[in-house]
Design brief:
Layout (H helix, E strand, L loop, with lengths): L2 H10 L6 E5 L3 H4 L8 H5 L8 E4 L1 H7 L8 E4 L1 E2 L12 E2 L3 H6 L4 E6 L6 H17 L4 E5 L10 H13 L4 E5 L5 H5 L5 E4 L7 H13 L4 E3 L2 H4 L4 H13 L4 H11 L4
Parallel strand pairs: 1-2, 1-10, 2-3, 3-6, 6-7, 7-8, 8-9, 9-10
Antiparallel strand pairs: 4-5
Helix pairs in contact: 9-11, 11-12
């Protein structure tokens, strides 16, 4: 592996190969998402408890102080909105030159396996990998399911993750699901978890994070489960304890409950 590529990956992952990404890229298709109306204010208290930010170039420039020391995973696909006809109709929205100018440590692009614009999204990934590899920049593929939530199962996510890895993604972000080991075991590059199904309690978030880590994930890319929580810092720290300190659910839950109490 080239030094530049290895160095960028080392910025994103601990020596044990684990990581906690904090995504705030939701506005690129959702607009001002609840609790993310002012991204800079949302992430400021959370910066110490994440390993990297997943963000668009616009939010990065306008909301994140340049002295921020966290690595940047730059969202570079888009061109659709939540009120449009098909979320899978994405293109690459940010040039590699722009990503380099913004000092991105990695690039993130969605792939929509099984959707109407599957081919376009997969070619977005393949072409981006061709360009990014020349400059030692890793690409993270995001296995998106859009409105087709019934596809969020191990068989589908294993298929999408493996295809993304085969096309050259260095990292794959996918959803947690039941039998998550089938997803992780079938993907030859590191797998990072996004949220699973909607949870009823805060403890359930910790449960699926722990389950996924036990079954082969190397970390998480959780946004709304953290910054929409009533105690965002407490949740970020509890999740971090599972990822980096190998805490079990009971330990993480105790931490969350203690930290979320009013001062």
């Amino acid at each position: 592996m080239d030094w530049g590529m290895e160095n960028r990956l080392a910025q994103l992952f601990s020596p044990e190969g684990r990581t906690q990404f904090l995504p705030i890229d939701h506005g690129y298709f959702q607009g001002p998402t609840r609790c993310l109306e002012r991204p800079g204010e949302t992430v400021a208290p959370l910066m110490d408890y994440c390993d990297a930010l997943f963000v668009t170039r616009g939010a990065l420039r306008s909301c994140i102080p340049p002295r921020n020391s966290k690595p940047i995973v730059l969202r570079v696909s888009g061109g659709v909105s939540v009120i449009g006809d098909d979320l899978s109709n994405e293109e690459i929205t940010t040039s590699l030159e722009e990503a380099i100018r913004l000092n991105a440590s990695a690039l993130g692009v969605s792939v929509f396996v099984g959707a109407k614009y599957e081919h376009r999204s997969l070619m977005n990934l393949a072409n981006l990998v061709d360009e990014a590899e020349r400059y030692g920049i890793p690409v993270m593929a995001v296995t998106a399911v859009g409105k087709e939530l019934e596809k969020r199962d191990a068989r589908y996510l294993a298929l999408a993750s493996r295809i993304a890895a085969e096309l050259g993604a260095r990292v794959v972000k996918t959803y947690w699901c039941e039998n998550f080991e089938k997803v992780a075991n079938g993907c030859p590059v590191p797998v990072i978890m996004a949220g699973g199904p909607r949870t009823e309690t805060d403890k359930e978030v910790l449960e699926f994070v722990h389950d996924g880590m036990q079954k082969g994930a190397v970390g998480v890319n959780l946004g709304r489960n953290i910054w929409q929580n009533k105690a965002p810092v407490a949740m970020a720290r509890a999740i971090r304890s599972i990822i980096h300190d190998r805490a079990d659910v009971a330990e993480a839950w105790d931490m969350y409950q203690e930290l979320s109490q009013p001062a």
